[in-house]
Automatic annotation (TrEMBL):
Alphabetized Pfam families for the sequence: NAD_binding_8
Name recorded for this polypeptide: Phytoene desaturase family protein
PANTHER family listed in its UniProt record: DEHYDROGENASE-RELATED, PHYTOENE DEHYDROGENASE
InterPro entries: FAD/NAD-bd_sf
Biological source species: Rhodococcus daqingensis
Source domain of life: Bacteria
Amino acid sequence: MSTAVVVGSGPNGLAAAVHLARHGVEVQVLEAGDTIGGGTRSAELTVPGLLHDECSAIHPMGAGSPYLRTLDLGRYGLSWRWPDIDCAHPLDSGEAGLLHRSVDTTAAGLGEDGPRWRRMFGGLTDGFDDLAADLMRPITNLPRHPLKLMSFGPRALLPATALARWWRTDKGRALFGGVAAHTYYRLDRPATSAVGLMITAAGHRYGWPVAAGGSQSIANALAAMLTDLGGTISTGTRVRSCRDIPPADIVLLDLAPSVALDILGDRLPSRVARAYRRYRHGPAAFKVDFAIEGGVPWANPDCGRAGTVHLGGGFDEIADVERAVAAGRMPTRPFVLIGQQYLADPGRSNGSLHPLYAYAHVPHGYTGDATEAVVAQVERFAPGFRDRIVATVSSGPARLAASNPNYVGGDIIGGANTETQVVLRPRIALDPYGTGIPGTYLCSASTPPGAGAHGMSGYNAAQAALRYLRRQG
């Protein structure tokens, strides 16, 4: 029987391990932390009885993952929960753009932009599964649905600032801009429309759900399936060098390129080592977890029904702020993402006390305290919010990086979505998962297709590893 070691138990590492085990490989997962999950961990961070997601929280790409959908994870305890409204984007006028799972319902709330929203996202939503099957593989693969890619490509390659001109109303432009800001890069650069288009289409196809019992449930379900398949997981096992990795036919690393470089050292070919050293990390997150009495007093009541709320004002304000953050300047009013997971999953709350998830986009390696900036942005759209706060826990870039070495400089998405890295990461190569060391692969969010609890980077890397085993066999 072939053997494999997977270093790291984030959703990609676990997805890779499951795929290998399903193909008869004996798999051992090594996790440095005391708990599995990587970016899908959940814990009581503020007060007892309130469950917070530590990083990844809302999962349109997880529910729509071409690989995870092939697994019967419901059998292992994974259950998706949906809020009444997927996402809201309030404006200072009191209006809010509302993203519903239904394209038609979303369009109906956007006035004169409704027909334009329907034309932009109707076809993308209907063809999302085929499109995702191509886009969530390495770019070097021959597309299975070339016509759909030809339709998507011209729009995806546009800067978000250019595509935003398609909409005429402040609500329509802001709603798209808030989703596009998930690219974590300045919105006036080519290809920054791609993430906004895909996440929106995924939401219209599958919604923006949360995992019942916290994002930890995704990792727990994958781990339970792996165990059923005969795989093992060891926590509290830090890998600092190749000497810490048990002998195996293949090794997969759910790690950032710089962390892999430290471990693999001189074994890496010089060209790969140079590429890993040059790999660019993007802006950081500044996360704030709140315990809130009675929920957030949103000025627009529809925001109180939305699982996700984007706080950034109009599109132009968002674009200006993201440009400043990418340039290393901390804005007074950062873009803030709010997660109200308890609306769909009430078991995370304790009576009228609710967990509130928030993070701001801040410069890479930011060393200041953005807590007040986050509170002020919420207060801007929810007057009286401060009076509802019972407890606060803040995690800046340094603390995030200490909790997970893959979050280099506070970058929680595994690398900057520059024009090149958005599709060619971590290096330009026919096999982006290969490290140049026979049988050793990267499988983290720093490989295609990038960030998200979809497991596709792990699946793709495992496929590459299985091809290697067949060649050896």
